[in-house]
């Protein structure tokens, strides 16, 4: 029974937060420098790829719904952000998604203050995932029907939550109700399809290896020591900004 519990515990979401990383490992530790360097390079690469893939008139009514869905489906920064969230924690995934969405908004001539709120709305889905996986002891490795069903349910809710950014976009660009509805439907459906058919399989393939590497290189906290406070704080901050 103990061995089974220990095995299940390794499959649960245990984020390696910045606080844990820097409090348990010195800044001079090559492991810290290594993971931070890889993280920064990955963010820079995916942001460049996102900008390169960005249509010249992104999310304008001249684009068809399929084009908007395609952008969300194959957005490198969104895929990277979700994977980093599951494998390392909220902060690791929050930053690439936030930067990606801010650049998209700024590139589309949105005022910087609206671009900031738009970017915060974009990461609401990650905050929903963090709250769900921290609050329920359900593995995220997608190696059981329970894990798969929970993942699909949470990603659907997260996709709907993050799609609130479409209303900010529409308000800023003074779009009509029909244009807003088209963008909203394309947003959440594209994000959901991407999570299920791209992020999900990648989690299934690489999660066991990533967890073994994490356990070998870093001192991870016990599940009981992880707190909902930081997740609740993130959700509160994002909700407050949207309000």
Describe the structure.
The chain is mainly alpha-helical and 243 residues long. It has one domain (12-242). It contains twelve helices and no strands. It has helices spanning 2-10, 18-24, 30-53, 65-73, 76-88, 90-107, 112-122, 124-135, 145-162, 165-173, 177-217, 229-242. Helix 5 crosses helix 11 (177-217), helix 8 (124-135) runs antiparallel to helix 9 and helix 9 (145-162) packs across helix 11. The longest helix is centred in the C-terminal third of the chain and has 41 residues, at 177-217.
* Count of DSSP H/I helices: 12
Radius of gyration: 18 Å
Terminus-to-terminus distance: 47 Å
Which structural class is indicated by helix and strand composition?
Answer: mainly alpha
Summarize the biggest pleated sheet: none
- The level of helicity is over 70%
The percent range for strand residues is under 5%
Count of distinct strands: 0
Question: For the residues shown, what is the average pLDDT?
Answer: 82
Show unreliable segments: 1-6
Can you tell me the overall shape?
Answer: globular
Secondary-structure element string: HHHHHHHHHHHH
Number of domains: 1
Main features:
12 helices, 243 residues, single chain, mainly alpha, disordered N terminus, 76% helix, globular
Which helices and strands, and how do they pair?
Elements: H1 2-10, H2 18-24, H3 30-53, H4 65-73, H5 76-88, H6 90-107, H7 112-122, H8 124-135, H9 145-162, H10 165-173, H11 177-217, H12 229-242
Helix pairs in contact: 3-6, 4-11, 5-6, 5-11, 6-7, 7-10, 8-9, 8-12, 9-11, 10-11
